[in-house]
Design the sequence.
């Protein structure tokens, strides 16, 4: 299986009723993942239908499209894998949760992020939900300021801004 993104279908340009998704495991992956970590992408892609997505390149209204695909093709499971820390990729994670809400039914799904381009980490769907509520995240940070030390390990953006805030 090639890791060339141009050889994989893009979610926005895939027919919502495409038969190749019926009763399959569907991987919705950040379009940059095959470039960031080809080996990991290949492993995640094995025996799954792959749909690439990039909210910077395409419309970010994936939740309706994903809900329509699930309703029409009934995949066995949805796996979403994105790059950790990307504000654009976050919308893919949230869209899978939102599709479940729109459909009003439990979806078999798994959420993953790739940390620092290397490590695949499984994410609880509730972590994605909490991340949408900045007031809750703010309370977590105020109660646990040591979290910012963990952020320093991963975020070039935070480290650059931290210099100015001293």
Sequence:
């Amino acid at each position: 299986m090639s890791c060339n993104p141009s050889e994989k279908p893009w979610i926005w340009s895939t027919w919502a009723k495409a038969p190749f998704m019926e009763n399959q495991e569907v991987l919705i992956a950040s379009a940059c993942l095959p470039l960031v970590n080809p080996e990991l992408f290949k492993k995640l892609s094995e025996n799954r239908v792959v749909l690439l997505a990039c909210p910077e390149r395409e419309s970010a209204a994936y939740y309706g499209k994903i809900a329509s695909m699930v309703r029409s093709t009934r995949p066995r499971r949805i796996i979403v894998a994105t790059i950790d820390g990307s504000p654009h990729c976050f919308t893919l994670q949230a869209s899978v949760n939102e599709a479940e809400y729109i459909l009003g039914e439990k979806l078999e799904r798994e959420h993953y992020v790739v940390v620092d381009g290397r490590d695949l980490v499984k994410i609880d769907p509730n972590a994605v939900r909490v991340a949408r509520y900045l007031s809750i995240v703010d309370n977590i940070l105020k109660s646990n300021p040591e979290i910012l030390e963990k952020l320093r390990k991963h975020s070039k953006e935070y480290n650059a801004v931290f210099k100015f805030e001293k």
About this structure: The chain has a mean pLDDT of 90. Residues 5-128 form a domain with the Dna Topoisomerase Vi A Subunit; Chain: A, domain 2 fold (CATH 3.40.1360). Strands lie at 25-30, 49-53, 77-83, 109-115, 119-123.
